């Protein structure tokens, strides 16, 4: 059992730094297996250096986001595991 | 509520009261200027910055109802934690606390959504579920709720008196405790970890389509979620919030 495995909800903070809409209720389609679901229900692996969100169905990486902590804030955002995002403009 | 699209920003909340809940937990009550309100089940990120600039960040669920003007965070003291010992032992009324939120719309419930609720908590995982129970009462809502709450011992049942009082006046709120380590001699309730047999006894039938929220340490959450799905509950209606071994 991976002890750093959390729910997609745990990625809500860092994703909220990047996106202006609520990402935990945003539905993502996995580019690998096609499964869709709210990001809040996916798996998140959170560490000091970054956050990886994985598909609940096939465990493929959906999103990787890393923030440089020293100096001016700089982000790396990898979305290639996501075929599409479906979100509402407002809650 | 978050009507206006915005990015999440850090801000300072003021500690206006602290209250010990159990020997290992404490509630911090915060006033947060410009707080837009939250939905029951959401959390905040808390960030501490040392004098040398080193920062440590943790997530804490909001335990208070959205109707309450103050935000209550429930903090469990982890002896080797970087953040929780400061929050339970050092912080004082009047101090500022850097935080951002509310975060997370997935593990959240609003009274108008209704639905037969099954809440399952382990230890301090009660926090977001307590927000739901308090919100339900504040909203005058009578959605049936069943709470299965696992604690190590009777003394460590967080919010015990408040839960007892709420259940005593509300027949549609049922609370079932299980104690995993020490139980008083006269204890007649469950005295073991939550397992499939217990869930089969407690959970509403899957055919009733209850909405389940499960929160606590990762092993408990994963066991409960797996067992509920095994009992026929729809995975999309079993919402989980793993605390993980957060290192608090």
What structural class do you assign from the helix and strand content of chain A? mainly beta
Strand order of the largest sheet of chain B: 4-3-6-1-2-5
In helices, the fraction of residues of chain B equals 10-25%
* First-to-last CA distance of chain B: 28 Å
Count up the helices of chain A.
1
Order of helices and strands of chain A: EHEEEEEEE
Rounded to the nearest angstrom, the radius of gyration of chain A is 13 Å
**Residues in β-strands, percent of chain A:** 35-45%
Mean pLDDT of chain A: 89
Strand content of chain B: 25-35%
Question: Can you describe this structure?
Answer:
The complex is a heterodimer of chains A (91) and B (248). Chain A is mostly beta strands. In chain A, 8% of the residues lie in helices and 42% in strands. Chain A contains one helix and eight strands. Chain A has one helix at 12-18; strands spanning 5-7, 27-30, 36-38, 43-47, 50-54, 61-68, 74-78, 82-86. In chain A, the strands form two sheets. Chain A has a five-stranded antiparallel sheet, with no helix packed on it. In chain A, a hairpin with a 5-residue loop joins strand 2 (27-30) and strand 3. Chain A is globular and about 40 Å long. Chain B has 248 residues and is an alpha/beta fold. Helix content of chain B is 20%, strand content 33%. Chain B has a six-stranded antiparallel sheet with strand order 4-3-6-1-2-5. A five-stranded parallel sheet of chain B has the order 9-8-7-10-11, with helices on both faces. The longest helix of chain B is centred in the middle third of the chain and has 13 residues, at 126-138. Chain B is globular. The model of chain B has no long low-confidence stretch (mean pLDDT 93). The chains are: A mainly beta (91), B alpha/beta (248). The interface between A and B is medium-sized, with 29 and 29 residues.
């Amino acid at each position: 059992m991976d002890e750093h495995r959390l729910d997609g909800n745990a990625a809500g903070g860092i994703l909220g730094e990047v996106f202006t809409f609520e990402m935990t209720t945003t539905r993502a389609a996995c580019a690998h297996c096609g499964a869709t679901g709210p990001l809040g229900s996916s798996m998140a692996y959170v560490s000091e250096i970054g956050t990886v969100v994985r598909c609940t169905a096939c465990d493929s990486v959906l999103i990787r986001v890393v923030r440089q902590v020293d100096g001016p804030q700089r982000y790396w955002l990898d979305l290639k595991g996501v075929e599409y995002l479906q979100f509402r403009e407002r809650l | 509520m978050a009507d206006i699209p915005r990015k999440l920003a850090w801000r300072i909340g003021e500690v206006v009261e602290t209250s010990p809940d159990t020997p290992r937990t404490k509630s911090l009550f915060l006033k947060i200027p410009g707080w837009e309100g939250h939905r029951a089940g959401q959390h905040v990120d808390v960030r501490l910055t040392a004098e040398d600039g080193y920062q440590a960040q943790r997530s804490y669920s909001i335990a208070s109802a959205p109707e309450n003007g103050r935000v209550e965070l429930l903090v469990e003291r982890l002896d080797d934690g970087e953040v929780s010992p400061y929050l339970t032992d050092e912080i004082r009324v009047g101090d500022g606390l850097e935080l951002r939120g509310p975060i997370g719309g997935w593990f959240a419930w609003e009274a108008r959504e209704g639905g037969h609720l099954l809440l399952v908590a382990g230890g301090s995982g009660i926090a977001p579920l307590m927000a739901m129970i308090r919100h339900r009462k504040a909203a005058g809502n009578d959605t049936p709720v069943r709470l299965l709450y696992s604690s190590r011992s009777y003394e460590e049942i967080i919010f015990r008196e408040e839960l007892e009082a709420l259940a005593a006046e509300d027949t549609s709120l049922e609370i079932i405790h299980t104690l995993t380590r020490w139980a008083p001699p006269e204890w007649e309730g469950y005295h073991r970890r939550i397992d499939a047999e217990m869930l089969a006894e407690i959970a509403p039938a899957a055919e009733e389509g209850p909405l389940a929220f499960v929160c606590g340490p990762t092993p408990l959450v994963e066991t409960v979620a797996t067992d509920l799905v095994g009992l026929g509950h729809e995975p999309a209606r079993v919402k989980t919030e793993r605390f993980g071994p957060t290192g608090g």
